[in-house]
Amino acid sequence: MPGTRRMRLTRRHVDLVQRAIPDPGPKLLPGFRAATDADYAEAVDGMLASCPGEDFWLFGYGSLIWNPETAFEEKRLARAMGWHRRFCLGPDYRYRGSHDRPGLMMALDRGGQCAGMVYRLPQKGLEAELHRLIRRELSQLPSAFPWRWINVRTEQGSLRALTFAMDRKNPRYVAGLSDEEIAAVLASACGFRGSMAEYLFSTITMLENLGIHDRNLWRLQALVAERIEAEGGLTDAPPDHAGG
Fold first, then answer.
1. pLDDT (average), residues 169-198
2. pLDDT of 32-61, one tens digit each?
3. What are the structural domains, with CATH classification, of the chain?
4. Which residues are tagged catalytic?
5. SS3 87
6. Burial of 19: CB neighbours in 10 Å, binned 0-12, 13-18, 19+
7. The whole model's pTM is what?
């Protein structure tokens, strides 16, 4: 239940690694090119043409839960079967990382299950909302986490929802890292939009408030807090009451 667990990772930890960093601008990776207006238009046209029903649903599993940005008329808790959250998208040299300390972003990866939120987007102005969405999620091609339709379950029934899922064939896919290795990145990386620790903190906080306990993320937040404490000298952090 919400509120029964206390996170080891706190705002004090986040403040220790947070730094004011100016936007360095797009950082194209070898073999990638910048997305153009034509690319965005093609993506939105494809989303609209392939929508499986009258309602347009969007599945969020990370920042779309605590910072959706797009307008919506309804939201529901939902579970995507065959997918799970994982920090497997790298390297991030701009948004929440730098060349000195690249970030490792969360993506929806194959296997397991993922509890999140689905949003029913408004029909009026839908195209404009999708343009906002694709510009948020896509900056380089080929996309490391292209849009696709997946099946999700809600208390009101199953439905098809648009999401952005990891392409394991993309060179930005990072596999095989241990939790300790992932935590080391999350505890230090920071970009112009903030730190990876802040991203993790915001995601888990919102999930817990929704009654969603992600065991993998919960373990990661404890490891990240321990790493920040060791490097930043924070010694009076609260204990971790994970409860499993």
1. 97
2. 999 999 999 999 999 999 999 999 999 999
3. 11-232 (3.10.490.10)
4. 137
5. strand
6. exposed
7. 0.91
